[in-house]
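Can you make up a polypeptide sequence alongside its tokenized fold?
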Amino acid sequence: ASFNAQEKKTLLNILILSCVFVSFYALRWLIVGLFSTLDYLRGFGITEGFAFEYLSRGRAFVPFPTPSALAGYLILFAPLSATLLLKTEKNCRLPLLKKTIINSLLLLAVMLIYLALLATQSLGAVFSLSIAAALFFFMRKKGSGKKIILLTLSGFILASLTVFFLRSHSQLFFNTPLFSLTNRFSYWKEAI
């Protein structure tokens, strides 16, 4: 609250940059570290048990303990990074058109964050982000909100079906989205 405009802008850039590093680290581990860790476990004859099964899901979670925790972190910064990309300068109708290098870096940051978010395969995070985007566009006074809401919901449905399909092919029931959903309903019922 005590920061001036320049300090707030600097803090926002640092937070988004740290999220980009976390996203890159999560994706790097998923692509490189996951397979070497599974090979390491296989080398000791461990092909069953929680660790092997947890890693075999192929969901991004590093540096957090669970994919849902990583997804919860990423959905905080995904909209912020996208708004910086779409920010317009004074006296300029097009977003950051004159600053193509900055625009390219911001686009790369947005893509890394959203790709890491999808790699978590977290239905809750995709659902939360889609609902927030739909509410944001619905509450805006200008523009055609109905078209944007329709696109947002269509994107949510497509992303949800993709994640659901990826997670439904597990041999173990506790890895399926249905198990996760029924347990969450149970938690909510107990909380109420």
Summary: Helices lie at 5-43, 50-56, 67-86, 100-119, 123-139, 145-168, 177-191.
